[in-house]
Fold this protein.
Amino acid sequence: MTGSHSPKRIAIAHPTGNTFSRSAAEAFYRSDLLDTFHTCIAVGEGSANPIANRLYAQRRCEIPQSLIRTRPTRELVRLMLQKKGWFPSLHKHEIGTFCVDSVYQDLDRHVATWLSENDTPPAAIYAYEDGALASFEAARKRGIQRIYDLPIGYWRAARRIQSEEAERLPEWASTMPALIDSEPKLERKDAELELAEHIIVASRFTADTLKEAPISLPTPHVIPYGCPPTRETVTPQGDGKKPLKVLYVGGLSQRKGVAYLLDAVEALGSAVELTLVGKRVGECKPLDIALQKYRWIDSLPHSGILEVMREHDVFVFPSLFEGFGLVLTEALSQGMPIISTHHTCAPDIIEDGREGFIVPIRDAAAISEKLTLLNEDRDRLQQMKEAALQRARSMSWQLYKDSLVQTAKEILQL
């Protein structure tokens, strides 16, 4: 079938319907650019299904239900098995029938069939890493533009950095599962990139990692994500006699530099109190010891994360390899100065020394130095908290949506 392209222009596909894919769908809908939103689980405006409205509340999308196409079965089973810890082989990395890769590829094939058979296909398909290959192949055959969203850095750079880390700290190697990605999966990533006509990334770091690709690629569009609504004020500092309250939120993986945070905090002793919020990623003896020593919270809902952020002084996120790091914008929104690396969105969202500090990767001493500075100068800490809040107010999700829409209009020559 050929048919004319839909005047609504863009179809979006993302299996888990996360924050940024829902924001993209909402942005395109508000600008009359959305054709359909394809995901596994979601509920939209006007949904008449009371069970879905209750069960899928966390995946609510502010677009009409009529524009949402869902494929829930495989994802629902995956979530249940993962939550209960049942039948690990069924959701085993890459090969399980209900693993994440299986969910992504199932939706991808489904969208590809829809693109092939639709009498009025969209003018463009907007898809994400690991879930775009079949869709892009179908789109190419019908002359549909292909927009690729890469939410984390390019895999070759990831493999290089994490392989180096496994050699440096072998006890932490099991916490970096990307090291065991199969060759077919990696080849699939490159095949998606080769089919992409336009690439969207959320940080300059992600854009830079694409320079390691062995193929010619279009220049990426860098569009940073937004901050959630900010708190009104930050509580003034006391006399500085209490320990500095340090927070980390994220997977307990060495990809995120957790070992360097632990070394930094260990060096400061009782001057700081550390809280770790996040799930274990693999077996790791040094991590076992740390989780016994420091406050550890396995998981929290989004509202709970924001609440615990308000209870701490500074947010440390020493990631070695990140696409963006939404927790950094969340921390800013709660008036928390951040300490992070060049391998995150930090250079895109803060001024070093104003709303936080940017430190080199793999540098526990640099983290300790910045924590000591904030611990000993509580007036400086207070100033940085207020600056963080001010910065967050200038980085709303609406700004992300506006930038994404403008880029889409340029791509579609509207």
